[in-house]
Amino acid sequence: MAVNEQLASQVHSLTHHALGTRIVLTVFGDQFCDLLQSSMDLIDGFEDRLTVNRDQSEVMDVNHAAGQGARVVSPSTYDLIKMAVHYSRENFGFNALIGPLVKLWKIGFQGANVPADRDIQERLQLIDPFQVELDDTRRSVYLRQAGMELDLGGIAKGYIADQVRAFWEAHGVTAGIINLGGNLVMVGSSPRRADGQWNIGVQDPQLHRGENMEIVRQPACSAVTSGIYERFLIKDGHRYHHLIDPRTGYPLKTDLSSVTVFTDQSVLGEIEAKRLFFNGRPIPGWLHRPGNRAAVFIHNDEHVENVGI
Asked: Is pLDDT of 40 > 80?
């Protein structure tokens, strides 16, 4: 394979704000330019159904009905909720019901505080993923206790990125980059390298966004990072980061600053980045699981540990 200079020069990008972040979509090839706006519309449609940052959405309909009754949602929303609940029940750290605890701490938002332990224990009763009833036939979701909340923010970007990639591939895109606020999907073969692989930067947690600790070279894949370096609260000399451990109700105790995973699917990357981060170290056999490619662990002392690289 040779470097495709003509395709590499036909770069088209569109920037948009959605999903609470800055989105940049890039395609190579003049004939695909019109797909960019359609892709942004696709993203906006998913946000309209999945967001919990507005009073009205399919997920908020489920939340408003907590303790009262089931709510029917669209097929894509149901599939994503079902996936999120499944992984939440594995109890490794990811929990799509953790909203009541996050709102109690408010780390990264106005009113951030260290809650009383009794309040934390009360909220822990509201984040049990086994208290979610799913009906595959009706595509309905029921949160059994009043006060429970679904929040798909920890998995939605990956799911949406995968949907955009599928949309592009259906329209013949041979090279492109989907960037949902640092959640990356590299589509097709890079026209800038003879081997078709992509250069993907791993963020240095101590520096500004875009300043990399290392560069990883991979064929088409997804790159997702979980980290604790962007939002935190300092109280009485103690530093509390925003990643709450649903098993304790307190910020996760860890020596890690971030974990970046490279996977076939972006939604898988969302899950696996959190799995590895909460584990605190590489998991034996992780590379042999379908869809997992590589991982980069960055410790608080800036020690870097690579898996599969």
From this structure: yes
